[in-house]
Amino acid sequence: MNKLSMSGLYTLTEWITRFAYVNLLWIGFSLLGLVVFGISPATVAMFTIIRKWIMGDNEIPVFQTFWDSYKKEFLRGNRLGLIIALLAYIIFIDLNYIKLDTIIQIPLYLIIFAIVMTILYIFPVYVHYNVTFIQLFKNSFFIMMVNPLSSIMMLIGFVALFFVMKFLPALLFFFGGSLSAGIIMSSCYLAFQKIEKKLQKAKAA
């Protein structure tokens, strides 16, 4: 029992260290690109690492994999970041418009919610599928719509993480990005698996 407890504690410590390390890499490489040009490719690299972990590839060289992904996806990742920034600006404008016109509040809130949820699926879809930009946004929206359970899991995970970070704000620096990405990627990966199983059944039929 004691050996099992020590083994479990070691595994937990190892994963805590891994997530902290990836979070620091995410911050560091975001700063390397002066944040504006670094955050999106750094986020792609972070999701690439976490996806591999979720799929069982736990022995990857983290720094080298992160750096290779960052370099490879720098230009395309920044194009994606620009589109997301434009969507964020549209949401900001819409939220201000809601304050002025109460008649359209409910439908506009629903549209904004759908956009935000679609954005949460974008990076997992980006690193999991090799698709064009148009397909990336279409697939993200479609997967979000047909997998409400994954979206609910994602939101529950965010709520839990919010309360932990609220009471222990120092953890935000070490785990804010990586744990958020872990919640998003694990929820989306379940959705990906369901879709792939359905496609396999359809091909077999």
Short key terms for the protein model shown above:
205 residues, mainly alpha, 8 helices, 86% helix, globular
Describe the protein's topology.
Layout: H1 2-32, H2 39-54, H3 62-72, H4 74-100, H5 105-128, H6 133-146, H7 148-167, H8 171-204
Helix pairs in contact: 1-2, 1-8, 2-3, 2-4, 2-5, 2-8, 4-5, 5-6, 5-8, 7-8
Description of the molecule:
The chain has one domain. It is built from eight helices and no strands. The protein starts with a helix and ends with a helix. It has helices at 2-32, 39-54, 62-72, 74-100, 105-128, 133-146, 148-167, 171-204. It is mostly helical. Helices cover 86% and strands 0% of the residues. Helix 2 crosses helix 5 (105-128), helix 4 (74-100) runs antiparallel to helix 5 and helix 7 (148-167) runs antiparallel to helix 8 (171-204). The chain crosses the membrane at residues 20-50, 80-100, 106-129, 141-164, 170-192.
Question: What's the quick description here?
Answer:
Keywords: Membrane, Transmembrane, Transmembrane helix. The chain is an all-alpha fold. The protein has one domain.
Helix content: over 70%
Count of individual beta strands? 0
- List the uncertain runs: none
What is the arithmetic mean of pLDDT?
92
Shape: globular
Protein name: Membrane protein YesL
Transmembrane segments: 20-50, 80-100, 106-129, 141-164, 170-192
InterPro entries: DUF624
Pfam family, one: DUF624
